Each structure stands twice: as structure tokens, then as C-alpha cells.
Amino acid sequence: MSVIVTGGAGFIGSCMVRMLNDMGIEDIYIVDHIQETDKWKNMTNKKYIEYIERDEFLDRLDSFSGKVTHIIHMGACSATTEKNFDFLYKNNFEFTKRIWKFCVENQISMINASSAATYGAGENGFDDKMDIDVLRPLNGYGYSKQLFDQWEKKQVLRPAQYIGFKFFNVYGPNEYYKKGMASVIFHTFNKIRETGEMGLFKSYKAEYKDGEQLRDFVYVKDICKVTKFMMENPHISGLFNLGTGEARSFYDLAKATFESMGLMPNIKFVEMPESLREKYQYYTQADMEKLREAGYKEKFYSLEEGCRDYVTNYLLENYKTN
Fold this sequence. Notes:
This protein has helices at 11-22, 54-60, 85-106, 140-153, 184-195, 220-231, 250-260, 274-277, 289-293, 303-321, and strands spanning 3-6, 28-32, 50-53, 70-73, 109-115, 161-167, 169-171, 198-201, 214-215, 217-219, 238-242, 248-249, 267-270. It folds into 2 domains: 3-171 and 220-245, Rossmann fold (3-Layer(aba) Sandwich); 179-215 and 247-284 and 301-316, UDP-galactose 4-epimerase, domain 1 (Alpha-Beta Complex), CATH 3.90.25.10. The strands form 4 sheets. The protein has a 7-stranded parallel sheet, sandwiched between helices. It has a two-stranded parallel ribbon with strand order 7-10. The protein is globular and about 55 Å long. α1 packs across α6 (220-231), α3 (85-106) runs parallel beside α4 (140-153) and α7 crosses α10. The protein is of the alpha/beta class.
């Protein structure tokens, strides 16, 4: 196999490169847009052929004809707070369309990052077998992902394999440079380290207690395991949810983080910014039936298991060495 990984210096993308290396694959091209960040550190212990700057990639894409078997497209602007929709449209929609067309022309596999943000407030549920045209994302990021999912559905000419993953709330190693967009576990760990306590948003809906808003938190190691399964089963194509299928509260997450650090929970509740209140999701839970029906049998990390592995084997270890 020879693989292009876009976003390969980022959080999920660099974990994909690690997965490929563990599979014995080193014929890898990493595409990213690092600029003045420390994301390059995510590449230092990986084996790959070349790093290609994002803005040069599309000009070079045709030169890879006949040379690669898979494109794992994790590169995107993933900021749910991004207000420049022209930027989102270019980077999350048009860029992805160009990769699709290359994969069609070369009849290779394309594995693409969609997002659970396409489900909007979840008023229609979180079922990846539903008609996606009924979905109404709450932000420009989610809409840019929805646009590609809708465009892809209409295409007659298709890659040899196409997998789209609707990622839910992913956490785990290598998200250290995502700043504000890093997972709640990452921010909770750092907040506890700095202050000894964690603040969670109060609830503004009577049916939810403070801190008991629910999310489907999925460990990045499970993301990689599912991706490996898809690469080993090229007859499977489709748009799939990728969560755990079990919604857990932010309180559970904060408690698990404290306990993974060997500390007693010290959790307080704070006001949610008014700018978030109207667009805030109180519940997400992936329907995982479609993935199971496709043949994926592996057990997912529980929130406690994933948090313990992440905190003890990565976050605390990094803290010791810094």
C-alpha cells in the first residue's frame, strides 16, 4: 500500500500515520499546513516519504497517478467557531471534491472525515442511514461537511472504495496543538493541573442537570481501528457514524479525568456564554448499527478506559518530560 494522509501532522491524521506504520506501511505522503505551530512534533516519531504543504498539494496531485492506493483525507478546517464561510467552502468542500475526482480517475480508496456536526441539534436523531438532506447543521463547519456528503451522494462515477466517517467527540494523543478545539479531556486535564478544579457549564434546559449535558466521546485509537478495518475490507463503502454508541455526561468525563490523575473530583458549575446558548447541543449519541452490520465487531473503549489510557500514558508522561 502507498497512502496519502492529508492533515497528517494534525490530531487524527498523525494517529492514522502511526496506525499505518504499525501495519508495516511506510510509503506515506503527509499533507498539512503547519505554519508557525508545533504540529511538526506529531511527525517526529513517524516513518513517511515526504511532507507536502497543503497549498502545493493539489498542484502536485496528478503526479501521484498510479503511485498510491489510498487517500486518507483528514485535513480540514475543523473549527466550529470559524466565521469565514468562504474559507470553509474552499478548504472543506472544494478541496475534498478534487481529491474525490482523483480517486475516481485512479480507482483507489478514499477515506474521508465528515462530522457529527452535520446532524445539527439532533432533532432528526443521529442515524447514519437517514436521508442526509433533512439535516440542518448549526455552524458553518458542519454545513461545509454536509455539502460534501450531499454532493458525494449524487455522484455516479465513484472511487474503488469510499468511506465517509461522521466523527463524534474524538479525544486522545496528538491533539496537543489544537488549542481551543482540543477535546474536553485535554482541557480538563490542564485546568486541573493549573487550578485543582474543573468548571462545567450550567444547564439551561430543565431536563438536564448542570454538567449532565451528554456527548458521545470516542477515543482516537478506536477511530484508527475502524479505519484499519475499512482498509482491510475494500468491498465496503458508505457514510458511517464513528462514535461509541453511548452518550456520557461532561460530569462523568471530568470525574474520570480527576480519577485518572489520582485526584478526588473538584467540579464547579459556571455560566455558559450567551453566544453559545442558542446553538448548544445537549445530547449526541451515534447510532452504530450500520457499522456493526458492515462487519465491525471490536469493542469500543469506554469513557473511563479511554480517559485512563490517555491521561496516564500520554498527558501525564508529557507533563513529566516538559
